[in-house]
UniProtKB/TrEMBL annotation, chain A:
Organism taxonomic ancestry: Bacteria, Bacillati, Cyanobacteriota, Cyanophyceae, Oculatellales
Compartments it resides in: Cell membrane
A single Gene Ontology CC term: plasma membrane
Membrane topology term: Lipid-anchor
Protein name: BMP family protein
Organism of origin: Drouetiella hepatica Uher 2000/2452
Keyword Translocase: no
From TrEMBL, chain B:
PANTHER family xrefs: ABC TRANSPORTER, PERMEASE PROTEIN, GUANOSINE ABC TRANSPORTER PERMEASE PROTEIN NUPP
Protein name according to UniProt: ABC transporter permease
Coiled coil, from the record: none
Transmembrane segments: 12-33, 53-77, 89-107, 113-134, 146-166, 186-211, 241-261, 281-303, 315-338
Bilayer disposition of the protein: Multi-pass membrane protein
Organism: Drouetiella hepatica Uher 2000/2452
One function term, GO molecular function aspect: transmembrane transporter activity
Presence of keyword Transcription: no
Gene Ontology CC terms: plasma membrane
Keywords: Cell membrane, Membrane, Transmembrane, Transmembrane helix
Keyword Transmembrane: yes
Amino acid sequence: MTAKHSRRTFIAYGSAALGTSLLLKACANQSATPNAAGDSKPFKVAAVFVGLVTDKGWNQSAFEGLNAAKKKLGFEFAYVERTAAPDQAEALSEFARQGYNVVLGHSGEFVGPTQQVAGQFPNTLFLVTNGGISGSNIASVQTNNLQAGYLSGTMGALMTQSNKIAFVVAKQFKAMDQILRGFELGAKAANPAVVTTASYTGDWDDVAKAKEATTALISSGVDVIYSYLDNGYVGVLEAVKEQGVYLLGNTSDRLSDAPKTVLTSVVQNVGTAIASVVELAQKGEVKNQVYVVGAENPEVLYLGRFSEAVPLPMKQKVTEVEKQFKEGALAFKDCSVDGKESWCLQGATST
Amino acid sequence: MKTNQVSNAFLPFLAPMLAIVAALIVGAFLIALTGVNPLHAYTILFRESLANYYGIGNTLTKMAPLLLTASGVLVGLRAGQLNIGGEGQIHMGGLGAALVGLYVHGLPMWIHIPLALIGGFLLGAIWGGIAGYLKAFRGVNEVITTLLLNYIALNIISYLVQRPMIEPGAASPFTPIISDSAKLPILMPGGLAHAGIFIGLIATMVLGWLFRRSPLGYQIEVVGQNPTAARYAGMSVSRTIMFVMALAGGLAGLAGAGEVMGLKHRLFETISPGYGYEAVAIALLSRGSFTGVIFTSLFFGALRSGANVLQREAGIPFTIVYAIQGLTVLFIAISLAVESNLLHRVSLRMNRLKPAGVKL
């Protein structure tokens, strides 16, 4: 097992390696010229995804939105998928270095890497989905999570028999807190007796964990589940079907998965939201701000098809809430609940 | 006698080289399947990982944690312990560094950086040490404990970054940025490569010296090769095992500390995308040699950074590069078997030719 090398060979190999790398560095230095984004060049958009673009959820939605926008607006589009946290800063800066005009990091995870590298590329716009940050060349885009949660909460509270509804999600962070808060507010507005709970599975794609968490919630009396998972959704769906309770879909229209079980879905087309900001960027009208796109853009956030199990008056009530969001009659504001930063309905004093 | 010596020094490098070449040839077929010219792909892979300013930076960034963790695994192997807990130890090390980097303020850089590194080393060492204690004093198999401790560590970190340590209003579970005084310096301006690679090289050289020159290294070696003889010679086998596992954990902890202090400047859930497991492969392929670890880590780091570029520039899926990596491991395992068979036959023939009493 043990190799017999003398100290001399060790030093020789080590210094050879070091020398070669220094030499290569010196050579390569010359080729690394900063690229100026000329006006005649085509507009170039790049996206970095944490997961796969075929996940039927978060990443695929963005991917399809950008591909549709590419056809419509005619920009060049490149992407990398499955980029783990240690590689994110590298992926963003490589695209920026190659002269891409917009570099999208499609997750709140990209906040750190974006802040790390954006300063070096003043000619590139860094866009972060769910980022909540802005800067001289940084903008963020997200769908209106509060609205999505609120609509789901309203639907759930109208349909529950046990007055217990629950939100199943992988992890806890700001965007998910917003959905949960909307869910609570919507449920309380529809029926003050309803109790909402949240369950965190820790994994967006783990089917078994999702099923376990859902089954546990159902056995505690919950009879409407709002799932907010990627592939883990399959586990939620199984549990809900087995136990004969209701499900609220997210992200895309899930009715066809189980027409009797899925009450409705709050479709959040994050890809279309991203595409709308990219379009602004191509026109040169983008501002360095956090874009929150909700029901006011009916292509981005809307209610999917309803199950036959939903009686007409209840369907009308939920659709009415959607309309209020669309018209701006119902909106949210920042507020403080029990000393913590949170969100409340505009005009309401407290919860 | 002389030729034999030369081949002894040369063989450990020849076999991995041939294995890598073989893996690249088979990999070429896989790449061709995706509709890309393999030659074009390999040109990109080489150019963007080793022959370009940013590529070298990316390779070094990935090599640093691999090198430290693999050295830790190798130290364990020398004492006969298979430590597959690198992943958990990296994360605990990251936690240690983040704690010092976040909650200790007002120190000058030259104190804060070593302190944060020590924090990372200590937590990693505790994590490795737990497995070491269970093996040495309770007889629990270290493969099982280190593997299971990975899950515990990952879940602890997951809890911490989602609840108590999360940055207020964070867009994803992560902590605030550590103090500037605890950040490792960047090596190449405009790139991401940080001083972690030096920590790795220094640690590996110190270890090389430890095993070549010091009584402690000798003791570890003896414990690894024959615990009974070690005990008979008056060495404490259990204490040595415990020490080795803590040291291995500490080295992986340093890797995690480097990731937090040099690359991401904050703690979050997946600071390691499987470096801990890759390190086991690197250590096994390096055949007990610390020099070998340096080169194997470089190769794996280059593959990793090249893989990212292959996807970006040639549209080759990441999984193909993983397959090439897997093929390398497979071919090296094959070459090891072939080589030991060959050596055995050569030495048999030598023994027949040489008169008795001549020592090879």
